[in-house]
Structure formats: C-alpha cells, structure tokens
From TrEMBL:
Cross-referenced Pfam families: p450
PANTHER family tied to this protein: CYTOCHROME P450 YJIB-RELATED, P450, PUTATIVE (EUROFUNG)-RELATED
InterPro entries cross-referenced by the UniProt entry: Cyt_P450, Cyt_P450_B, Cyt_P450_sf
Protein name: Cytochrome P450
GO molecular function, a single term: monooxygenase activity
Family: Belongs to the cytochrome P450 family.
Length: 322
C-alpha cells in the first residue's frame, strides 16, 4: 500500500470495512438525521427570521446576511454540539478549508483537535454514542470521535454554505423562478440539479487500488492513489442526457456530489433541509428577487478547496406578506 497518513487519521474518511461501519453508526446516531422533523422545523424558523430581516426594495449580499448565518447556526445543532464547542470549531473551520502546505494543515488540525478533545472529554453530551465494551459495534473512542466531529463540521459547514450560495445565485437568475419552487418535489429536483451541475466538491477524497488494474486505459498498480473527479462524473454523457445543460426538472438524477455507497455523505439531510427551507422562504417572501448582473466575485469564489461564489448580490424587490 502507498504510504499515506491523513491529518485527521482517526475519522471516517480513512476507514473502510468494519471500522468505517462502527464510526459511521456512531455519527448517524449523534446527528439530527434521526430527528429530521424537529431539525427541519428549526431550519425553517431560522430561515424565516433571517429572510424577514432583509431590507425590502434594496440590493443585499445574501451570503453574510442569510446563507452564512443559516449554516453557522444549524451545523452545530445538526451534529449535536453545544454552543461553546461550535464556537471553538468555527474559529478553525475557515482556515482548514484553505489550500495550505502539509505542515500548515497539520499544525492547524492539531490545534483544532486539541481544543475539541478537551470538550469531548469534559462534556457528557459530547461523549461518543453507544459507549460500551471496547470495540463494540457503534462505539467511538474519544480520540476517534474528536476527528469524526472535526471532519463533519469543517467539511459540512463550508461545502453546505458554498452549495446554498451557488443554488440561490443560479435560481434567482431565472425568470419566474418562484413558480418552480412551489412544491417539495420541484425544490428537491432543483437542488439535485444544481448539486450535479455546479456542486461545491470538485473531486472525491483519495482511494487506494487494492490490486493492479486498468481504468479508462490507464494502468494502476496496487497501492496507487486514485482520485475521482466528481465534476466530470456528474457531466458524463453516458449517465446524463444533455450533461452540460442545466435542467431543473431532471429525473432521474443520480449525481455523485454526495459520494456513493458506504461513504455516502452523512450530512445529506442537512443539505436538503436547508436548501428546502431557503427556497421555500425566499419564494414566498421575495418572489420577485433577482441577481444583479455579472459580478466577477460571484464567479471567482473564495480561496477554498470547495467551490462556491464569494457573494450573492440580489435585488430583493417588495416583501410579500406571510
């Protein structure tokens, strides 16, 4: 096998088989994935509050006023984190998703892990789920659980915010966009199409070849690192009709933005829940909102390993009564 040590080596990404199943079971048990109605209610109420604070008949940047606060105030709740832990992780999260040297990454992760580990050990509500005999199914040791929480928080916070910004920027550029957001099914299909067409994650995490093989006429030896381009896979003409075009009603839509199989993203309910709340609330209160032309910052994004617009300037128009 190729020599590789992940900076967050005890988390979910570097695990397969029984070890991965054990940690994933604990992660799903701890998150709000098992209490979706309550989470959706919370997300909807927060979104209504944030949208209600927007200035009618004005142009606003929806990233700092709506999308950022929506994600920041729900990611911790989704993962079951107390407010003081959420604040600790938020201080490190933006740095950890910027391109850095290996040594800088390891230093920042070490500091974040050390701070989080103190809370995991001190707070009963942060103890790993399913605690029992060592190695029991579903149990996560404190150091492992620290890395699981760190991975889920850092990756989930930034990628979700970037996707929601892309979604809103694209949707508000369409004529009569609010009409396409009237039903849950329409909103879900719209969400999936933007995940496929312009998702925040361009490539998957590293994988290792178990045996010598040939992939797309390329020879790969056992132990070689293989990285899948999710952006290209999501525009594969053998999997999607008109793959380079945006089709809000596309079905079926088997995009790979959330991954596939055992490593499918554990934050799927977070993304769908926030996207639905955002589209529902904006379409009801500001159905005439539109983006304001070709802003270079909207296209260039930020210095991040994820992809998304740095700002979403929207002419809001009049607010409708709710």
């Amino acid at each position: 096998m190729a020599q590789h040590v992940s900076p967050m080596r005890l988390g979910l990404i570097d695990k397969d088989g029984p070890e991965h199943t054990r940690l994933r079971t604990a992660a799903l048990s701890a998150s709000s994935g098992g209490a979706l109605p309550a989470f959706r209610q919370h997300a909807g109420a927060l979104c209504a509050k944030l949208v209600g604070a927007l200035p009618p008949q004005r142009t606003a940047d929806l990233v700092p006023t709506l999308i950022g606060p929506l994600v920041d105030e729900t990611i911790g709740r989704f993962l079951g984190l107390p407010q003081q832990v959420d604040a600790v992780l938020r201080a490190h999260a933006d740095t950890l998703v910027r391109p850095m040297t290996d040594e800088a990454i390891r230093t920042e992760i070490t500091e974040a892990r050390r701070a989080l580990r103190r809370h995991v050990r001190a707070l009963p509500q942060l103890r790993p789920p399913c605690a029992g005999a060592a190695g029991s199914r579903g149990e996560a040791r404190p150091d492992e659980w620290t890395d699981v929480l760190l991975q889920m928080y850092v990756a989930g916070r930034r990628s979700t915010a970037d996707f929601l910004a892309t979604l809103v920027l694209g949707v508000l550029a369409q004529d009569r966009w609010a009409e396409g957001c009237r039903t849950p099914l329409a909103r879900r299909r719209l969400c999936d199409e933007y995940l496929r067409f312009d998702g925040p994650i361009v490539r998957g995490v590293w994988r290792f070849a178990r045996t010598d093989t040939v992939l797309a006429k390329t020879s790969i030896r056992a132990g070689d690192i293989v990285i899948v381009s999710l952006a290209l896979a999501n525009r594969d003409p053998t999997a999607f009709s008109r793959p380079t075009g945006l089709d809000p009603g596309r079905t079926p839509n088997r995009h790979l933005q959330f991954g596939h199989g055992a490593h499918r993203c554990t934050g799927v309910p977070l993304v769908y829940g926030l996207a639905d709340a955002l589209l529902t609330t904006l379409s009801r209160q500001y159905p005439d909102a539109s983006t304001t032309g070709d802003d270079p910052a909207c296209r260039s994004g930020r210095n991040s390993i994820f992809r998304g617009p740095a700002r979403v300037l929207a002419a809001l128009g009049p607010r409708q009564p709710v």
